[in-house]
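User: Structure tokens for this complex, please. No commentary.
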Amino acid sequence: MTIPLSYYLVLSGIVFLTGVVGVLLRRNIIIILLSIELMLNATNINFVAFSQYFHDIAGQVFVFFALTVAAAEVAVGLAIIIALYRAKSTINIDELQLLKW
Amino acid sequence: MEQVFFFYFAIVIAVTAVLVVAVRNPIYSALSLLIMFFHVAGLYVMLHAEFLAAVQIIVYAGAILVLYLFVVMLLNLRQDDRYHRQWPMVAAVGVTLVIEAIVLTAMKGWTSPVVAAGTETTVGGVGNAEAIGDVLYTTYLFPFEVASLILLVAMIGAILVAKKHIGGDAPQL
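Assistant:
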């Protein structure tokens, strides 16, 4: 294998960091969910890289479970966004303060 | 040759990941995320995870992203979305994580860890999909069933949350 494992880890770290910054920085809920997808993909890259490196296929199986969780998260999250938009007519998180005290 | 492909995929993934966060229009965000998914699939092929590459394209690019685009177009967003006011906190968290990554890399160096002997079915030999199925339906059978339960719960939850009234009033959208 000519590509060292560290390269994959650095790439995954960059993508994960971008996701964290996106969650904290943006005000649009849909962009926040997209940033969460970025973070999940970063962990998936990590899993597959380690799976290849250690010659252990369990890492790829766990990518499957991460994929399942991502699909469930997207379905429920988008349903919540639609319900929020019906109730408040906005998806800007600065204007959604129902749970703030 | 392999390095050329890796750096192409890595650069495109990094740039599109930044674009997802930086672009103002949510549709452009979702489309750059689509490009990122395709290149991550290419990275999986490089890592000899061909089955996962196919699943990445089918599930992520085909199902999840279409759902995002559907909701973005359904809500018909205006483009008045700017960045959050709490960007000093964002900068603090980001800089901290970057410093941590740099320190960890400097401590451990760029050497790779020792290869352990594979305890499960090893990658290669038999086909990739066959190996995954072999492990998934024996060792990870119970998590597999739990995952199906999670999907069922998510499906019911999404229907219940997005539905206006169970009785069936006129939709307001």
